Amino acid sequence: MTVNDNEAPAIVCPSNESVNNDPGQCCADVIYTAPVGTDNCPGESTSQTAAGF
After folding, report:
1. Which residue from 5, 13, 33, 35 puts its CA 20 to 30 A from 48's CA?
2. Mean of the per-residue pLDDT values for the chain?
3. pTM of the model
4. Are the CB atoms for 28 and 20 separated by under 8 Å?
5. Distance of CA 43 to CAs 10, 11, 20, 26, Å?
6. What is the DSSP letter of 29?
């Protein structure tokens, strides 16, 4: 038996954000909206890895 999922998942990402660090600091805390994904097959999951770390 072969099962083909021919419908791509729908992924909605928030817009890009730029955040400046505080003067004299080398980092900044950033709070952002996570992307949302849905799929026609049950059991979908969303994972995310922040780039640059």
Report:
1. 5
2. 84
3. 0.53
4. yes
5. 14, 15, 38, 40
6. -
